[in-house]
Amino acid sequence: MILTIIFILSLCVYILYRISTRKFDYWQKKNVNYVQPTPFLGNYSGYILLKENLLDVVYNLSKLFPNDPYVGAFFGTKPTLIVKDPEFIKLVLTKDFFYFTGKECFEYTHKEVITQGIIFTYGDRWKVIRQNVTPLFSSSKMRSMFRIIEHCSGVFENLLDEESLAPEVEMKSLMSRFTMDCIGGCVFGVDINAMQEPKDNIFTTMGCLFLETTTSRGIKNVVKAIWPEIFYGLGFKVFPTDIHKFFSKLLVRIFEARDYKPSERTDFVDLLLNLKKNRHIVGDRLQKIKTGDEGADSKLELEVNDDLLVAQCVSFFIAGFETSSNSLTFTLYELAKNPDVQKRAQKEVDEYIKKHNNKLDYDCVKELPFVEACIDEALRLYPLFGVISRQTGERYTFPTGLTLDKGDRVHIPVYHLHHDPEYFPEPELFKPERFYGEEKKNIRPFTYLPFGAGPRVCIGERFAKMQMLAGLVPILKRYTVRLAEGMPETINFEPKAIASQPNIGVRLNLLPRNN
């Protein structure tokens, strides 16, 4: 009996081993240099075992075969091409975008309501949604939103009076409260009040629920990314249904408050109300990008149901507060480490405030170029997403003759590009001058990708910059930031996080300036 059990277990292990390694000769057959994989884990063991952030794993793999435009690897059992050369990255993100419209495991985005949002969805559906929400980010809409951001910046300045009294301040939570209020006002037209009432704030709870970094969430992220057929086949979901339910009820309340009619705000909710009223949205199919065909089949009509609206709400909510708060935190951390840079940024803010009578203006992005350069440099050191993932929708052949099969994964190593001394000399140093004035023109295209590039470039890039500047100005004009006692000079990334975030609290001192 014991021998029988041992035999069956051994047979099962052998079968699983064979299944997990059956594609491990994939890159060899295609004459691509690759890293010898480990059964089940491939070359991503650090990420799969929740020991390293995905960007760290891909960064280390990217340094191998330095003269090759790409490196073959295995994301668990999935063949994955790490594309390093900027010219090849350009093909993936722009020129031949038609073949790479979706992120990895895109064919499963319909399995959850939240993943039907613009951030996760793909193909023709993504294209139609993108076309219909793009008007929200026009210059006139941005100017209108800035009035809300300016108000939040004023509330934030008053909040700093209280926070600065503490011996040290944990910046990530503080900046999250600011960006949360900004996104609540700009997107939903509601006062979240996270800055003044942070405890038991339901929006903060939902944000934490979406971005939780627990071990169980980390395991879900990994299994879903590598083996989505197993993950969803067993009935699992990445995101708790509480998020979907909350935003569904929120939308109903907001719609009722506006009597289901667009208001004069012309904000995101008005956009959703118009979509709901029309019941359908129409846009171009991606085939038009490939062929330029203007025929009847080049258009696609999507039904507007509640799930589609909720998915877009969650996408804009998360993208609007989490990424900006992380970037602000990293920027302040680097300014605290580099007092000379901080003084220069403060000087620029002082001149701006004097010129505008202590008020923020919509054109602050243009008039605070060095502060913006500090943000850009922080985004280089700590990109929001250190890896851009894509999956081929059709067979695709690179100029080198390498052909990727449908469903193959592509990883673009953003963190590696940003830290490559060939593109950014002394890459570990915080040098905002790289992005200031004429120096910015020296950056090689497709080596700096904090917001992505091409058709899927972050739709809210301008909004994010506007929001981040409005968060930095109140701090720089009244305080000097310093590292709190015991705060390390380097920060690692949280292994289980979806986006790049520090694995420890960023503790800084806010010291009142003598001006």
What does this structure look like?
By secondary structure, the chain is an alpha+beta fold. A four-stranded mixed beta sheet has the order 1-2-9-6. The protein has a three-stranded antiparallel beta sheet with strand order 3-11-10. Strands 4-5 form a two-stranded antiparallel sheet. A hairpin with a 2-residue loop joins strand 1 and strand 2. The longest helix is centred in the middle third of the chain and has 32 residues. It is globular, with a radius of gyration of 24 Å.
Would you identify the CATH H-level superfamily?
Answer: Cytochrome P450
Spatially, the strands of the biggest sheet line up as 1-2-9-6
- H/I helix tally: 20
What gyration radius follows from the Cα positions, in whole Å?
24 Å
Output mean pLDDT: 89
Largest sheet: 4 strands, mixed
Number of domains: 1
Query: What name is given to the CATH topology?
Result: Cytochrome p450
Assess the beta-strand content as a share of residues: 5-15%
- Percent helix, as a range, is 40-55%
Give the total of beta strands: 11
Poorly predicted spans? none
| CATH class descriptor | Mainly Alpha
Rough outline: globular
Tell me which CATH architecture applies here: Orthogonal Bundle
What class, by secondary structure content? alpha+beta
Roughly how many Å apart are the termini? 84 Å
InterPro entries: Cyt_P450, Cyt_P450_CS, Cyt_P450_E_grp-I, Cyt_P450_sf, Insect_CytP450_Detox
Cofactor: heme
Keywords: Endoplasmic reticulum, Heme, Iron, Membrane, Metal-binding, Microsome, Monooxygenase, Oxidoreductase
Enzyme class: oxidoreductase
